[in-house]
Design a protein that fits this description.
The chain is of the alpha/beta class. The protein has helices spanning 16-31, 47-54, 80-84, 95-101, 105-117, 130-134, 138-149, 182-200, 203-208, 222-226, 243-256; strands spanning 5-9, 37-41, 60-63, 89-92, 121-126, 165-168, 210-213, 233-236. It has one domain: Aldolase class I (TIM Barrel). The chain contains 11 helices and 8 strands. The protein starts with a strand and ends with a helix.
Length: 257
């Protein structure tokens, strides 16, 4: 059985001082929950402060983005070695990056490969827009995102699947309060994402790689998603900024495991 993973994407919220306060609220409750990989992803400016407070805990740290070059004249960017000093995980290809900052499947692929080269575990986001969903193009779009995002990635580089995570985030459900149905999300993962992982890597990797659901996940609906066998956790947005609610989501994942 794949151990569930819950990652909190704080997006562009929380100053350093606010991060210290929220992490201090999160640690006691999260530390008490076993059988779940717990990751928080604050803004770049708050990573060092969060890291200091997480020392000695089982809670891991993730960044929200990364550049594919190790160094260079790329003003405003952050390289894999810089992230790897602080984090174990990095979110790549979030729909907001694709929508607002022009990220493509090709740039996502460069970032995935760079992250793996530097010992980071990518959380690779895929998902269709509302128009694509309503046009019946979910399988086409998500398959291409998985296929192109993994171009040039070898089975050896992902350690048989343990160092790679995918997150299915239907764009129409992110920040809208409108979550996909749990059976619908499970079907996309089971019938589209895992078969493409098997085709691109190996059947064994497709079964080992954790695939999360993301999109308006809350304490009140998390258990419904985690009751489905191909949903291995969640990439949580707004609810990750509330200590009680994020802890409730992690507890739901633990019970499912």
């Amino acid at each position: 059985m794949r151990q569930p993973l819950i990652a909190g994407n704080w997006k562009m919220f929380r100053t350093v001082a606010e991060t210290r306060h929220l992490v201090s609220e999160l640690v006691p409750g999260l530390q008490a929950i076993k059988d779940v990989v717990k990751v928080i992803c604050p803004p770049f400016t708050a990573l060092l402060a969060a890291k200091a407070l997480l020392e000695g805990t089982e809670i891991m740290l993730g960044a929200q983005n990364v550049h594919w070059e190790t160094s260079g004249a790329y003003t405003g960017e952050v390289s894999p070695p810089m992230i790897a000093e602080l984090c174990q995980f990095v979110i790549i290809g979030h729909s907001e990056r694709r929508t607002y900052f022009g990220e493509t499947d090709e740039s996502v692929n460069l970032k995935v490969r760079a992250a793996l080269d530097h010992g980071l575990t990518p959380i690779v986001c895929v998902g269709e827009t509302l128009d694509e969903n309503e046009a019946g193009r979910t399988a086409e779009v998500v398959s291409q995102q998985v296929r192109d995002g993994l171009a040039g990635v070898s089975l050896e580089s992902i350690h048989d699947g343990t160092s790679l995570v995918f997150a299915y985030e239907p764009v129409w459900a992110i920040g809208t309060g409108k979550a996909a149905t749990a059976p619908g999300a499970n079907a996309v993962i089971a019938d589209i994402i895992r078969p493409m992982l098997a085709e691109r890597l190996a059947v064994s990797a497709a079964q080992a790689i954790r695939v999360l659901y993301g999109g308006s996940v809350k304490g009140e609906n998390a258990a419904v998603f985690f009751s489905h066998p191909d949903i291995d956790g969640a990439l949580v947005g707004g609810a990750s900024l509330k200590a009680i609610e994020f802890t409730q989501i992690v507890k739901a994942a633990s019970k499912s495991f």
